[in-house]
Design brief:
Elements: H1 5-15, E1 19-24, E2 36-41, H2 56-78
Antiparallel strand pairs: 1-2
Protein name: Putative gamma-glutamylcyclotransferase
Keywords: Transferase
GO molecular function, one term: transferase activity
């Protein structure tokens, strides 16, 4: 999926200073590689990590509304 610079900026703001964005080339099941960006947790914030694995369902129930509101806010500011 290709994201625009604006969309990447929204993600950068949402992920905040706790993460940095890194470019990677994962290898797919068929052996091909793709370019992708990932957000990596900064070591200096490791004390804030929980012991449970990350869950999309949990993120969706707890954080999706905040993420959508941030996207809308950024969109409104861009068009003001």
């Amino acid at each position: 999926m290709e994201l625009s610079d604006k969309e990447l900026h929204i993600l950068d703001v949402y992920e905040s200073e706790e993460y940095y964005r890194a470019s990677v080339k994962p290898v797919l099941e068929d052996g091909s590689e793709v370019e992708a960006d990932v957000y990596v947790w900064k070591e200096e914030f490791s004390h804030a990590l929980g012991s449970e694995p990350w869950s999309y369902d949990e993120w969706r129930s707890k954080h999706l509304v905040q993420f959508a509101e941030q996207c809308l806010k950024d969109e409104l500011l861009q068009n003001a």
